[in-house]
Every structure is written in structure tokens, then in C-alpha cells.
Amino acid sequence: MGVTAKIAPSMLSSDFANLASEAERILNCGADWLHMDIMDGHFVPNLTIGAPVIESLRKHTKAYLDCHLMVTNPLDYVEPLGKAGASGFTFHVEISKDNWQELVQRIKSKGMRPGVALKPGTSVEEVYPLVEGANPVEMVLVMTVEPGFGGQKFMPEMMDKVRTLRNRYPSLDIEVDGGLGPSTIAEAASAGANCIVAGSSVFGAPEPAHVISLMRKSVEDAQKNS
Known binder of ligand: residue 210? Predict the structure, then answer.
């Protein structure tokens, strides 16, 4: 597979009052990306962070800021997030069926990398047009919990979606998010996921570096055996 392991700790599980130092600490522990959960309190019940926080964090780090937009109108966020210094912009397929072409084009025009996410109840076929279009997304995020709440249990039945995507798109970045940690990583990695979002399992660990390297090794081992 022409994809590399990327471990993306979810900053939602970090100490928000010390975001810059938390980012630096977790990058020093071996994180590849920083996963930023942007929720609008409408598409999902929680209200988290927006462009101002991304802009503030960007002043303190050169890291890839992997932004996952759980929002009802992602188009409204493209310009502010581009200006703020976001790296990746992942929107939800459920609310973008009619305008994803425009969304992808705008995301790319602002220098960000487009991705599409799907909730547990959404069938994997919904994202095919976005990966196969003339101007495709570059990552698919398979939610392994219902978005909007932290600390939920990993849903192993979502691995069928990951397997289907990996078989169909050998070189696509496939991200999983929700309940990932040492006890669930092997299942996700063997299904074909290469971008791993992990929150409490990393930030709540006595040694986050150990958890990050364990998850990376799991992805790399699965790729060798595929």
C-alpha cells in the first residue's frame, strides 16, 4: 500500500487551557498530526473550537493541523480556517451531497487538503463519488463512534467500511476516529486504516510516546502483512 502511518492525537482530550504546550508535548511524543475537532453545536450537540483557536495554535507550531468539521455548513468555514492556518479540512458527507464539488475546490484553493467523513449510520458508498470525482478528496474519515461525544466505545462493525475502502482505493489515506487505543488499534490497522485519531488513550496514558509508537507499529505491521 502506498500510504504511511499517521498518528493524530485528538487535541479535544488535551488541556485546552495549555493548548500550545500540549501540542508541543504530544509532538515530542511522536505524533504526526494534531487532530482538531471543530463542532458547531448544531450538526453535533457539542460546541468546541473554531478558526480563532486554530489561528492561535498555528503561531506556536508548524505541525499538520488535521481539522474535522462536524458542522452544518462547512462552506462557511473554508475561508476562515484557510486564513487561520489549518492543514486538512475534513467535512461530513451527510450535509455535503449537493455541494461537495464546490467545497473541495474551495478547500484546495485555500491551500488545505480536503477530506470527507462519514458517521456510523452512513453507508460507505456515499463517499465513492467524492473519491472518484475529477477533483477528489484526499482522505476518508470513517467515524468509529457517533461524532460529538468523547470517550465512547470503538464500533468494530465499522471496520467493514474501512476494508471496503482499502480494497477499492489502495493508495487512499483512510482515517479512523473514536475509541482507538492499544486494545483496538490492531483491528483498525488490519482493516486498512493508516491515519489514526486517538484522544483519551494518548492523553490519558502515563507514557503517551509508548501508545503512539505502539499504534504506529500496528499500522506498519498490518501493511507488511497485507
Answer: no
